[in-house]
Every structure is written in structure tokens, then in C-alpha cells.
Design a protein that fits this description.
The complex is a heterodimer of chains A (385) and B (212).
Chain A (H helix, E strand, L loop, with lengths): L2 H6 L15 E5 L11 E7 L2 E8 L7 H7 L6 H5 L6 H16 L5 H30 L4 H21 L8 E2 L2 E2 L7 H23 L3 H7 L7 H7 L4 H5 L6 H4 L20 H24 L21 E9 L2 E9 L7 E5 L1 H6 L2 H5 L4 H11 L3 H5 L1
Antiparallel strand pairs in A: 1-2, 2-3, 4-5, 6-7, 7-8
Helix pairs in contact in A: 4-5, 5-6, 5-12, 5-15, 6-7, 7-12
Chain B lengths: L3 H19 L24 E5 L15 H5 L5 E11 L5 E11 L8 H5 L5 E3 L15 E2 L1 H4 E3 H7 L1 H36 L19
Parallel strand pairs in B: 1-6
Antiparallel strand pairs in B: 1-4, 2-3, 3-5
Helix pairs in contact in B: 5-6
Classes of the chains: A alpha+beta (385), B alpha+beta (212).
Chain lengths: 385, 212
């Protein structure tokens, strides 16, 4: 059987329209309370095919937004780490950006460079592990994920050296960054960035041409561009559907207008495209890192106007958004002039990318539901907040 | 050819498998707890209280200002102010924490207490093997348990500790110089007043530094 034949092969299923058929309802998903993300899909199956799908979430709800409205602006920063715990540094950046807009703080040049470097490292490690988890869900238990984690470990060590913590970095502050770079940190980043293309080549050699991967993913879970736009899908999901939308290019937040990089786009919007987009985006991130590492200026890392204690921005509202590895991450803040925000709202990319899950899964085989779910690349900490 | 991609991928895994026997770089894991990776300097886990000198309770830098208690995001710090005072590192009489508890089962290691502390009294430890069979009492650290010497701080975060020591020494020198100037002025005043009887004794700031 050739690869194309494998691709179109489907086991025979019952006709959905036949009268008297009973649908089988299955609760799918990692919903054991001890798993780090708890999620359930109530799937109605007709034989192998999905007829109805209802995502059920909220098990990991931690009242993040309400807590933030009761806590000071600074005290919410460590909580943002826990939204998407794979990419705490981009979460920090999005929140810091919103508060900087609100309070009118300027970020020094050096801090901007540090932010770009840490954010792009975050993107690479997130995409690497997203690919690893996707393969895990496909049944390639271990190998691709462990290769991804091997590389991720190096990047997390860099984060630990800089911020003190591997995942809960809590590094950015309003108007800059918390601590100065440790001695020799940039050199270490340089050596690791030089090794990253080799890792991506390895991943591609392992997976890109793999016939099983192609048969399982090509043409499965196709997301049409108009549906993606209407549902507000962002990030690699949207770009895999062929929509050119990257906030780094649109908003030029930070100093992204200084770097030359391309935005990879997909043609089909299937799972394979989402996988490819992540590989290509990681490659572009390496390009950005190389440019950013060349000229990190000396200077302060904090705006002198910013203060740690007694921070009270003036009355107003602000929305800060960045291109997080999973999509558009935004923070909407309303200040009433007091020490804590009047309203604090997170626009989580994971949750909004998940809303189209039923549209992607309808008519697919039940085994593909897991794959489609994996290709959306969500973190339940961000979905439930 | 069908299967070419799979073979190519298998070649990659074979390279890694065989490579792990010859190249140390490909072996990325260590056998914890027998083997350990070198500690990273900035690592933070849970807070501890720094004291100067040998007596933990006398040398505690904390003055129970309760800023950390207020700023702590998960509110895991509990402080009771003392009713009496003890001299701090420059010799100024300050209140001290009669109770200082941190519930490390609630603490999320965010380091905000360290950032907001104006007295360099609370720092982050690197101790992480803290598992205990007592879920509540075992994870509620009181001030005796929390206080660790400045030498310990120097051992775990040498760069930071040197900076902090430098800053504190400068502050102390400033206070000393001020006290000296005040003493000189007072002495001059006393000399002038010596002619007149029953002059009040001049008050000077204490010069000694407890536990430094």
C-alpha cells in the first residue's frame, strides 16, 4: 500500500443516517486529578467516527483574574508564570507590556534585547516540546519527546541561571527586567543557539519524511482559514491555515522591527502543516536570536521611573498583547488609580484555539481526535486560569 | 520508496543510541541522588532569614516591618512584632520579629519578599529536599528554622552576598561617620557647657556593633 493509499484508507463504518442506531458516548481526555492538566471531551461516536464532541474544562480553575484584582500589580506577576507554564517568560512579557502601557513606562534598550532573547528561547523550547507531545499522542512513545526535552533542558538551564527558576521565571518587571545578566550568560546562549539548528535537523530527519506520520496527519483535522479567523484562532494554528498574522510583524512590540525574519505559512491547515509550521518557526526564532545576540547594548535594565513598592498607575485602561508561542496572549487592565487593578483580564490563546475543537474533529476517526487535540498545543493552566 | 523516511528516522535514533556509548555529551541524564549536577548560582527555592554573627536570634537582620508579609502574593508569611527592642547591625535599637513563620507548602518561590525587603534580611535558599511526613507542622517553618547565617548566604549566592555585604558596610560606615560627627559636636558643646555647672550629659548614638 502506498503512502497516499494509506492516507485515504479508512476502516468501514456504519452509516450515520441509518435509523435505530445508537451512538456511543465516550469521555476522553486526561481527566485523572493527579495529571497536570485535566480536560475531558464528551465524544459521541458512531462506530469509529465522531458525531458530536463537547470539550469540558475548568478543572484547573484557580481564580487567577479575581486574585489579580485583589493583589497588587507586582503580586500578579508570579501568577502569570502559572498560566502557560511552558512559556512563563512570554507570559511575563505580555503582562509587563500591558502595565507599561497603563503606567507609561519606557523600557531601556538592553532590557528589550534581553526580553527578545528570552522570548525566542521560550518559543523554541515550547515548539520543540509541542512537537514531542504531538508525537507522543500519535503513539511514538518517548523518542521524539525525549529528544525535544533534551534540548529544552539546555534552555531551561539558561533560564535557571538567569532568573533562578527553570519554569516559574518571574523575571520581567514593569519597565525592564529584574536582574542583570550573569557573567558569561550571553556566551552560553550563543553556544546553545549554534547547536539548535542541528537539533532541528535531527527532528526533521526523524519525523518530516516519516510515512506513518504523513499517513496519520496529512488531511486530518483541516482548519479552514475563514473558520480560523471567525473563531479568533491565533498563533501557529492560524498560520498553518495560511493566514498571515503574526503580532511580531503587525504590532512591532518591543524591538521586533529591527530583526529580519520570515513568517512561515501553511497551505492545507492540517496537523502536518501545524507540525511543519512549528519547526519552521523555531528556525526563524534561531535567526532572530542570532541577530539579537550580536548587539546587546550596555546600559540600565530598569526604567528609573518604575518602582517596586507603592506602584499605582494612573486611571485608565490598557491592552497589551504579544505573540506568545501558542498565539496571541493579551492582558487587559483597567486601573482606578489604586494599588490593584480594577479589572484584569487574560486573553488566553490556548482557550480560544480550543474552541474550534469540535469543528476539527467532526467526521474524523476517534484515534485522530487525540492527534487533533495534541496539534492544537494547549496548556490547561492557561485554558482554565 | 515507501519506508524511506522511517528508515532515515531509525538511523537517527541508532546514531543517538550508539553515540551514547562513546560520547559523554549524548548522555544527558544523571543518576540522582547518587550523582548530582553542579548547583546553579541564581537558583532559588524557599526564603530564609539572614543573621550576622553567631547567635541567630540576636543577629537577625529582620526588623519586623511586615512589608514582605503584605507583598507576599500567596500570603504565606506570618509576623508578630516584638514588644521590646534589640540593636540592629549598626547599633540602632529596632523591634524584631517575635514570630516569623513561613508556610512553605503555600510559598511559591517567587522571590518578591526578597525584592521588597529594604533590610536585606530575607533571601532565597537553595535547599529543595524538604519532604516530610508531617504535612502541616513539618512544612511550617518558624524563625529558628528559617534563620541561617550570612556565611551560608555567601556559600549559596556568592556574587549577591558580596554585593549585599558591600552595601551594608557602606551604610554602616555612613552611620558611624554621622555618629562620630554628632559625638564631636556634642563633645564640643559639653566642653563649652563645662564652664556652666549642671549641664545635661550629651547623648550619643551607641558605637558598638552587636554580632557583626
Amino acid at each position: 500500500m502506498s503512502a497516499t493509499e494509506l492516507k485515504i484508507f479508512r476502516p468501514p463504518v456504519m452509516d450515520v443516517t441509518e435509523e435505530g442506531d445508537e451512538l456511543l458516548e465516550v469521555a476522553m481526555g486526561p481527566h485523572h486529578p493527579s495529571t497536570h492538566g485535566v480536560f475531558r471531551m464528551d465524544v459521541a461516536l458512531d462506530g469509529e467516527r465522531v458525531v458530536k464532541l463537547k470539550p469540558v474544562f475548568g478543572y484547573l480553575h484557580r481564580n487567577h483574574e479575581k486574585i489579580a484584582e485583589k493583589a497588587s500589580y507586582l503580586a500578579s506577576m508570579p501568577y502569570t508564570d502559572r498560566l502557560d507554564y511552558f512559556c512563563s517568560l512570554t507570559n511575563n512579557w505580555a503582562y509587563a507590556l500591558a502595565v507599561e502601557k497603563l503606567a507609561g513606562l519606557e523600557v531601556p534598550e538592553r532590557a528589550e534585547y534581553i526580553r527578545v532573547i528570552t522570548a525566542e528561547l521560550t518559543r523554541i523550547q515550547n515548539h520543540a516540546s509541542a512537537i514531542g507531545f504531538l508525537m507522543q499522542e500519535m503513539g511514538a512513545s518517548g523518542t521524539p519527546l525525549m529528544y525535544a526535552f533534551r534540548e529544552r533542558e539546555k534552555i531551561l538551564d539558561l533560564f535557571e541561571e538567569l532568573t533562578g527558576s527553570r519554569m516559574m521565571c518571574n523575571y520581567m518587571r514593569f519597565g525592564g527586567c529584574r536582574v542583570e545578566l550573569p557573567k558569561g550568560w550571553l556566551e552560553k546562549v550563543k553556544t546553545i543557539v549554534e547547536g539548535l539548528p542541528e537539533f532541528l535537523d535531527e527532528v526533521e530527519a526523524l519525523l518530516t519524511g516519516n510515512e506513518i506520520l504523513m499517513a496519520r496527519t496529512q488531511g486530518v483535522g483541516v482548519l479552514k482559514p475563514d473558520l480560523a479567523i471567525n473563531a479568533g484562532v491565533t498563533g501557529p494554528m492560524l498560520r498553518a491555515a495560511g493566514v498571515n498574522y503574526d503580532i511580531r510583524k503587525i504590532d512591532h512590540y518591543g524591538i521586533y522591527d529591527r530583526f529580519k525574519f520570515r513568517v512561515p505559512l501553511g497551505d492545507h491547515g492540517d496537523i502536518y502543516d501545524r507540525y511543519m509550521i512549528r519547526v519552521l518557526e523555531a528556525r526563524e526564532s534561531i535567526e532572530i536570536l542570532k541577530q539579537a545576540l550580536q548587539d546587546v547594548p550596555a546600559g540600565p535594565i530598569m526604567d528609573p521611573k518604575s518602582k517596586i513598592r507603592g506602584f499605582r498607575p494612573k486611571v485608565g485602561e490598557a491592552y497589551g498583547r504579544i505573540e506568545a508561542p501558542k498565539g496571541e496572549l493579551g492582558f487587559y487592565l483597567i486601573s482606578d488609580g489604586s494599588a490593584n487593578p480594577y479589572r484584569y483580564r487574560v486573553r488566553p490563546p490556548s482557550l480560544i484555539n480550543l474552541t474550534i475543537l469540535e469543528d476539527l474533529c467532526l467526521g474524523q476517526n476517534v484515534a485522530d481526535v487525540v492527534l487533533i487535540f495534541g496539534s492544537v498545543d494547549i496548556v490547561l493552566g492557561e485554558v482554565d486560569r | 520508496m515507501l519506508g524511506e523516511g522511517i528508515l532515515k528516522g531509525l538511523g537517527e535514533t541508532a546514531k543517538n543510541f550508539a553515540g551514547s556509548f562513546v560520547s559523554k555529551e549524548r548522555l544527558t541524564t544523571v543518576q540522582y541522588p547518587e550523582e548530582r549536577i553542579a548547583p546553579i548560582e541564581n537558583t532559588r527555592d524557599f526564603p530564609f532569614l539572614v543573621y550576622d554573627g553567631t547567635d541567630p536570634m540576636a543577629g537577625l537582620r529582620c526588623v519586623a516591618c511586615q512589608i514582605c508579609e503584605k507583598e507576599c502574593p500567596p500570603k504565606c508569611i506570618y509576623i508578630v512584632k516584638s514588644t521590646d527592642k534589640k540593636p540592629d547591625f549598626v547599633g540602632k535599637m529596632q523591634i524584631y520579629p517575635a514570630r516569623f513563620d513561613i508556610d512553605i507548602s503555600v510559598c511559591m518561590s517567587c522571590q518578591i519578599c526578597v525584592e521588597v525587603c529594604p533590610f536585606e534580611a530575607i533571601k532565597m535558599d537553595t535547599e529543595f529536599e524538604l519532604s516530610t511526613t508531617d504535612r502541616f507542622g513539618g512544612l511550617l517553618f518558624d524563625r529558628e528554622h528559617l534563620s541561617k547565617s550570612n556565611e551560608h548566604y555567601h556559600k549559596i549566592h556568592p556574587t549577591d552576598a558580596a554585593e549585599v555585604d558591600h552595601r551594608l558596610a557602606e551604610e554602616k560606615a555612613k552611620v558611624k561617620a554621622k555618629a562620630k560627627a554628632a559625638a564631636e559636636v556634642a563633645a564640643a558643646k559639653a566642653a563649652a557647657a563645662a564652664a556652666a555647672p549642671a549641664a545635661p550629659a550629651p547623648k550619643t548614638a551607641p558605637d558598638k556593633e552587636p554580632g557583626a
